[in-house]
Design goal:
This protein has helices spanning 8-21, 23-54, 60-84, 91-110, 112-123, 132-144, 150-157, 160-174, 181-188, 192-217, 223-239, 261-271. The protein is mainly alpha-helical and 272 residues long. It has one domain (23-46, 57-271). The protein starts with 7 loop residues before the first helix and ends with a helix.
């Protein structure tokens, strides 16, 4: 029988069928994303109440971190929607964005001076109260710190041993983001492992993002959500393969509330 290449529509359908075969992954991923949204929305209500009382707004690195968290949730949602619709390669763009944004938040926490440089740079064009000379100074300061690129941030956050793991993880994601034969191949041929790996990486990154949420909000997070997070943590081993690092910094950790995954789990158990 003569071999016939699959059409793009057929390949999409094959990926969509594969998605439906991983119902447990889909359900668990949805639970993680929904819970993160619930926590962030609850925190927004608390902050709104605090603002009404104090009339004080967040600014600087802390404000950027909380805004970044909303972006992360949008990335998780878009990642899941793409996989649900059989789109494998484009889903990796969102994994990369999540990874880079989590690192930016950890940089804001562990190096507030660099976080404030980032805040000044990001808000410079909309800040009508600063001069052109000040804007130029902000831009030069930003460039002096390597424009806070991911490779620069990784060196600030991780020891040599840890950075090898994070770089391997990051490069694995980026290999499907940059234009290359590898990144295009899953578009014109069915590659189930590429699809499934994207799924697992997304679930793995929810783990690191829960760490970030507790780093930002800790005791403000309601008990019912803490219990749900602990329940999810107990389920992670079923869905996350080895080699997916938790992105907690390994150096300059004095400002961190939770220096390890184990510390957060212990806190959640005490809180429950």
């Amino acid at each position: 029988m003569k071999w016939k290449p699959k059409t793009y529509t057929q390949i999409f359908q094959m990926y969509k069928r594969l998605y439906s075969e991983y119902k447990d992954f889909s359900k668990f991923y949805s639970q993680c994303i929904t819970l993160m949204y619930q926590i962030v929305q609850d925190m927004a209500k608390i902050k709104a109440t605090e603002y009404i009382k104090t009339r004080k707004s967040l600014t600087g690195a802390r404000a950027m971190s909380e805004l970044y968290e909303i972006k992360i949730l949008h990335n998780f949602t878009a990642h899941q929607i793409l996989l649900k619709n059989g789109i494998s390669i484009a889903s990796y763009n969102h994994l990369r964005s999540i990874y880079e944004t989590i690192l930016k938040i950890y940089l804001n926490i562990t190096y507030p001076d660099l976080g404030n440089i980032n805040f000044e740079y990001e808000t410079r064009e909309n800040n009508t109260e600063i001069s052109k000379d000040k804007i130029k100074q902000i831009e030069e300061n930003y460039k002096r710190n390597k424009s806070l690129k991911t490779c620069f941030i990784e060196k600030k956050l991780y020891s040599k041993g840890n950075i090898q793991l994070t770089r391997k993880f990051y490069h694995g994601i980026c290999s499907f983001v940059h234009p290359s034969i590898k990144s295009m191949s899953a578009c014109y041929e069915f590659q189930p492992n590429t699809f499934i790996d994207s799924y697992k990486l997304g679930i793995g990154l929810t783990n690191s993002n829960f760490m970030i949420l507790f780093e930002l909000y800790r005791d403000k997070i309601r008990r019912k959500y803490k219990k749900k997070v602990l329940s999810i943590f107990n389920e992670y081993p079923k869905f996350i393969p080895e080699g997916i690092p938790i992105l907690t910094p390994s150096i300059n950790r004095e400002r961190l509330m939770f220096k390890s995954y184990a510390e957060l789990i212990e806190y959640l158990k005490r809180s429950g």
